[in-house]
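Input record (Table S2, row 176):
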Amino acid sequence: MMAVTKKLRFEVFKRDGFKCAYCGRTPPSVTLEADHIDPKSKGGKDDINNLITACFDCNRGKTNIPLNVIPETLLKNLEILKEKESQIREYRKYIKKIDNRINKDVEVISQIYSDNYPDWLLTDRFKSLSLKRFIKHLPLSEVKDAMERAINRFPDDSNSVIKYFCGIYWNKIRGD
Ligand SMILES: [Zn+2]
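Output record (zinc ion complex):
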């Protein structure tokens, strides 16, 4: 029986946010596997649409095979360990990639502000707390739009702009 390739497995993990579909746990507390929705024994394919992220425990629970009858040779343990290490690595990369994107977007907004108020800079605290949060919750275009609206409203007041900008964000979150 051909196993799911590593590439396909990680595509499934990425799609599912590296979370077990059954219990919601993520590495490193669990080792993930790609579980066939339609079992292979019943003709299920090694296709991304037929695969779902499941942790080792949840995947075993579904098989009706008691854990203690699954042969765990030393080699298999080593394989699991290697897989786990590579999942932790990939998970960190995935998180880092998202974080890098958010940081880039923070700089885009920060640039719009400093283009309009050359003598002022957004504080690191505002950038890392408020702005990051806004960008996580709203599309960049909406955050940009909020900053531009605030600047148009207070072209000469670099402080009121921030308050107004935050106000727009909260209204959007509440669904104004
Ligand atoms: Zn699980």
